[in-house]
Design brief:
153 residues, DUF1854, three-stranded antiparallel β-sheet
Amino acid sequence: MHIQIERDAFGRLVLIDMDGERHVGIVPVRAFPLTAPDHGISLVGSDGREQVWVDNIDDLPADARTLLQQDLAARDFAPTLMKLHRVSSFGVPSTWHISTDRGETSFVLKAEEDIRRLEGGALLIGSAQGVQFRIADVKALDRASKKLLERFL
């Protein structure tokens, strides 16, 4: 793929397309962020229109790939839930006290629908604050965490 991506003086991503046209303020958007994060990435312009479709991020030159991966990593903040210590109640809303790969925290679960099942036994739990917590494999959790979690599934 013959495109270039750079950052301007304001930190915005700039796409230089095959015709040499500059598109300032592009935003990379993953089509399948959980199941195929490196495949199907749309580069959306500041007008909200897709400028370029990237089938596979590995098809891009190394410098463009690095810039996109940095931008996507900052937007895709989703800590991994490692242990569920306690919940305030078994109804919703409830406050969950947890350990993640980034430390201990707590969050509010508004509704049971905020727990989404993913492929391979994974879960994605959306907090009232907008943070998404991932559980890669429910079976890998400790016994007490699984027991608390089962009340909500």
